[in-house]
Amino acid sequence: MKSFLLLILSLMITGWEASSEVKGCTDGWVEFTCKSPKNKIYQKVDVVKGSKTIIQSTEKNVWQTEGRFSVHHDRENRKLRVVIKQLQRGDFEDYKCQFIFDQQSDCDEVDLKVDDGCQTPFNQTAYRTAKTTISCDKRNSEVMFFCKEKKGSICEDILSTKSSPKSNGSFTLTETSSSFNMSISNVSSEHAGVYWCGVETDNGSNRAALRKIQLEVKDTITNFTKSLTVGQNLTYWCKYPAGTTIKKFICKGEDPSICEQIVSTAQRNTGKFSMMDDKVKNITITVRNVTTEDTGTYWCGAERNDPKQSNPFFHKLVMTVMPPTTLNSSTISTSTHPVPTSASSTQSTTASAHSNGEKAFLKPTAAGA
Question: What is the pTM of this model?
């Protein structure tokens, strides 16, 4: 059972009261902004937990860190950003942002709560030049955001539900009734790292992380392209690592993290797509009587039973199906074995069977043959 945290930060100011609430959980983080009372310019500020000073800030516009606590001192705008990482039950305590003005002090007031809002951390694998989507549960009543951990600050904003437009470079935000998603197109090694989704209140002054996503980018995957004519059959096979005993499947879509599963080794193979498992390393896939609607990107993958990890993928096939009158047979090259290639490169293959009887990797045939 996951342990959850209730953290209350209550900082009192004479003459006024402000209240905000942010929900998070253990192992996540919270971030809040303290503002200088009465809009005064201050020399330094102390973050106090109970009666103990946790961190002092004197350097402006620089992130200062002490253990799990970080602060950013913005004297010009008369505010301090405070971050508490890797929240623990022991963090249940009263906190103060104590501003120092010429040997006098005053405090800002924030009321933050962190409880059971987090999701299971997730390790996701993406493939260079492909697309990938990271996802979190949606909270309809709050502004949600995605950010990426960077050196020198807690988490650099990418997109949020208040962003307009809902895109930023290679990043695009989408929402459903229950999920909050960020897609990354044309994945590169620079996209690898730690991402967080979370909620914010008070126009972004207060934030809390809800889920951690560790994104790994694989630079290579076996790639193939294949051109077929309507009515042909296609037989090819995917090579799986030894010991891959979990359910294997074929899915269709540009984004393997959300692609639509078409057929698997756990179901009867009687339709257009079929799979045959030799129980060692290879899966033979047959596509019958192709049509133009079969044009698209296909992935050979395997299902994991671990909710903390994404499914692994091993081969990518880009198939184009043309009407019979538009495809010249001279455009089809041949290759007999799968060759691991850079994810950015492609390999056109067909396959005539070997004269010695060895199975070809890709074998187009006329329908009904």
Answer: 0.80
